[in-house]
Design brief:
single chain; alpha+beta; Rieske Iron-sulfur Protein; Naphthalene 1,2-dioxygenase Alpha Subunit, Chain A, domain 1; 2 domains; four-stranded antiparallel β-sheet; 6 helices; 15% helix; binds FE2/S2 (inorganic) cluster; binds fe (ii) ion
């Protein structure tokens, strides 16, 4: 798991004036909305005796620890220690980490890391959101698989024919040969575009909308953005385009929450949402059936413990990026975290840690030098 990216903490509608507990990157956070409507995300661990702030209540835009009533504002500063009396001086060291937040696409994003604003990788954009002629459906999935395995699944043009055989024609005698993937550089990632044979659309209304009653060629575009977001554009015809955006939040190693936003330019009636949700759930479950059994659960430590063929070019590129982000010192040393978990409470370092010292909790240990797998060697197609 990596610090220094934006992660979706919750759906906007779930964050009210009551504290909400959220787990991300193997750590605990509390979210709340202040009286001005702004959402805050703090480390959940009280700097007094380790109480869980999310178990407390809101008092004057501060979250109050349920143990001894210390209060923390949206910037993480401790504003009240009842046992010190009314005029007690509050030590600065009592503050907790507070993380930048943004609300977009009906979601609350938190920047979990210490980079200054100008150096932060941006949130993956969903350009169609709120645009005329587009309609969104949103879904949240909880899976017991690792987010990187899931991102790789999305970058994998060779799995559709098998994993999603309801959607793509599977021809025994003429399998889909993945063309040489031309990777397009995007902001903090890469993408590709391929054309793929597809069966007639089995949903009658969709087939009518797209004028697709016969097998045809679909345009598929897919790519990743940062370590845990990806996009899939499916274009049966220009009349019917779906642009899916997936924001994956690692909860623990091997546990992932996926926030999916699916935009479409046809079938804009709210009643049609059910069809989209049905299809997205079906596809997610088909992927899930496979991903839950993939071993090892995490990406292997060394790439030579798997075999890469040309169709895996995009996955190989994603792994190279992972190694680069690890070399930047952004990867959490989760083995160390888990070794100490019963005696050390950690915090993901927040941006303010770069400006001042003397914090109560240790920052999560990070892997300082790249120890990643061997370079990916792709077997030739011939
Ligand atoms: S543990 Fe939070 S106030 Fe004491
Ligand atoms: Fe899939």
């Amino acid at each position: 798991m990596f610090i220094n990216f934006w992660y979706v903490a919750e759906r906007s509608e779930s964050v009210t004036d009551k504290p909400v507990a959220v787990r991300m990157l193997g750590q605990d956070f509390v979210l709340f909305r202040d009286s001005a409507g702004e959402v805050h995300c703090l480390s959940n661990i009280c700097t007094h005796r380790g109480g869980a702030l999310a178990g407390g209540q809101m008092v004057d835009d501060c979250v109050e620890c349920p143990y001894h009533g210390w209060q923390f504002d949206g910037d993480g500063n401790c504003t009240r220690i009842p046992s010190l009396g009314v005029n007690g001086k509050i030590p600065k060291r009592t503050r907790v980490d507070s993380y930048p937040t943004q609300e977009r696409y009906g979601l609350v994003f938190a920047f979990l890391g210490d980079l200054p604003e100008e150096e932060r990788p941006p949130i993956m954009e969903c350009k169609e959101w709120g645009q005329e002629g587009w309609r969104a459906t949103s879904l949240v999935f909880d899976w017991d698989y690792d987010y990187k395995r899931s991102v790789e699944n999305a970058l994998d043009p060779a799995h559709n024919e098998f994993t999603h055989s309801t959607h793509i024609d599977r021809k025994k005698d003429k399998p889909f040969q993945v063309p040489d993937l031309e990777l397009i550089n995007t902001d903090w990632g890469t993408g590709f575009h391929i054309e793929m044979p597809a069966p007639a659309m089995y949903e009658e209304k969709m087939a009518d909308t797209a004028n697709l009653h016969e097998p045809s060629i679909f345009h598929i575009r897919a790519g990743y953005h940062g370590v845990s977001s990806f996009w899939t554009y499916i274009e049966p015809t220009p009349k019917f385009i779906r642009r899916q955006h997936f924001y994956e939040t690692p909860i623990e190693r091997g546990k992932t929450r996926i926030f999916a936003i699916d935009m479409r330019n046809a079938m804009l009636d709210p009643d049609d949402d059910k069809r989209m949700i049905y299809m997205d759930t079906l596809v997610a479950n088909e992927d899930g059936d496979v991903l839950l059994d993939v071993r090892p659960v995490l990406q292997p430590l060394n790439n030579i413990k798997e075999n890469f063929v040309p169709a895996d070019k995009h996955i190989a590129h994603y792994r190279e990026n992972i190694r680069e982000w690890e070399a930047m010192g952004w990867r959490i040393d989760q083995d160390e975290v888990e070794r100490n978990e019963h005696q050390v409470a950690y915090a993901i370092p927040c941006p303010d840690r770069r400006n001042s010292k003397n914090w109560t909790l240790d920052p999560v240990p990070l892997i300082s030098a790249t120890t990643g797998g061997a370079e990916v060697k792709i077997a030739s197609a011939n």
